[in-house]
Write a structure and sequence with these properties.
With 335 residues, this protein is mainly alpha-helical. It has helices at residues 2-27, 33-47, 52-73, 79-86, 90-110, 115-126, 130-140, 144-172, 176-186, 190-204, 209-220, 223-242, 248-251, 254-268, 273-296, 300-305, 308-331. The protein is globular, with a radius of gyration of 19 Å.
């Protein structure tokens, strides 16, 4: 009862923002519910005169609900099916992830970008957009403003990719297989991958949507090693500043372990879509709800003023990923 009394107002406010954001995301999938939730949350916080009664619930949603969303995401990952169908795309996926992280690191150094911004934009660009940012943010202790900024950057280039890539693929003479691989590796978020592949299928009368989705899900598996590596890096960095020894147990992101466990359960027991489907949708809704909380904790004026460097970093990561995806396809004779 004490938990409900303390958190109820904030949880209800986040839920009240999440529901219309969810439906807006369904109506405009190229944007997605998380973006609407952040925008509405930032608008609400501008007019909310007394935020104190909502603070505990908002903070709980932006942290714990976000981690729960990542765990439920695992129920959409049948490891056997994904690896069987997606293994041929692994060289391209590994190359694009590597180039995005390298670009983000170089620009972090060159532009004196905040470390968390560079990590979130690099990981979001290379793996799976909002889901990767959701998984990474708690590990590196990113602030809500850093998360909101990174999500906004990813959204911008998701929309551009969904609009541009079908025409670009046709101009380059990509095959249906080639475009599925291109969309799956060079577009960040699942909704935008779906939008681009659907547009391609409508133009060419093909069925690239399934192959693009498999490539995208294969990319999502990179959440596991990336978050573990970041946890170790973050732990070592903290220990150096505190002059104490590194503890893997203290740094380990246990919610990622539960994400992996959910994936293993789905794989071993061959859970049918009637079971995993609602859990995947729950994961997506919880991410929208968490993004509402992040929007409520974000100063939109400060976000705009400090957005130049993250946007440029996202642009460079986007260009690098796109170029490497096409180059790798050409080398592997997939084009």
């Amino acid at each position: 009862m004490n938990f409900l009394k303390k958190h109820m107002a904030g949880l209800f406010l986040c839920l009240a923002i999440a529901v219309p954001s969810w439906f807006l995301g369904q109506a405009i999938p190229v944007a997605g519910g998380p973006v609407f939730a952040i925008l509405i949350g930032m608008a609400v916080t501008l007019v909310l005169t007394d935020k104190e009664p909502f603070t505990a619930g908002i903070n709980y949603t932006s942290k714990k609900i976000l981690q729960a969303a990542v765990v439920f995401l695992g129920f959409g990952m049948n490891l056997t099916e994904i690896l069987a169908k997606g293994k041929q795309s692994l060289p391209v996926i590994l190359s694009t992830i590597t180039v995005s992280l390298v670009i983000a690191f170089l620009l972090y150094k060159a532009l004196k970008l905040k470390a968390n911004n560079a990590i979130l934009v690099g990981v979001g660009s290379s793996i799976c957009g909002g889901s990767a940012i959701a998984a990474t943010a708690p590990v590196i202790h990113a602030s809500d403003e850093e998360v909101a900024q990174s999500i906004s950057v990813i959204f911008l280039f998701n929309v551009l990719a969904a609009i541009i890539f079908p025409t670009l693929g046709a101009l380059l003479g990509l095959s249906n297989e080639g475009f599925g691989l291109f969309a799956g590796t060079a577009i960040n978020d699942t909704s935008s991958v779906t939008a681009a592949a659907t547009a391609w299928d409508g133009i060419h009368g093909s069925n690239t949507l399934e192959s693009a989705a498999i490539v995208k899900m294969t990319r999502t598996l990179a959440i596991i090693p990336i978050t573990l590596a970041l946890a170790i890096w973050r732990g070592r960095k903290a220990d150096r500043s505190e002059s104490s020894s590194f503890s893997l147990k203290r740094s380990f992101p246990y919610f990622v372990l539960f994400f992996l466990l959910a994936s293993v359960i789905t794989t071993v027991f061959q859970l049918p879509d009637v079971v995993t489907g609602p859990l995947r949708e729950l994961s997506k809704f919880l991410i929208v709800m968490a993004m509402a909380a992040i929007g409520l904790n974000t100063n939109i004026i400060k976000l705009i003023k400090t957005g130049g460097k993250p946007i440029f970093t996202g642009f460079c990561c986007w260009l690098g990923i796109s170029a490497v995806s096409l180059a790798m396809q050409h080398m592997l004779n997939i084009w």
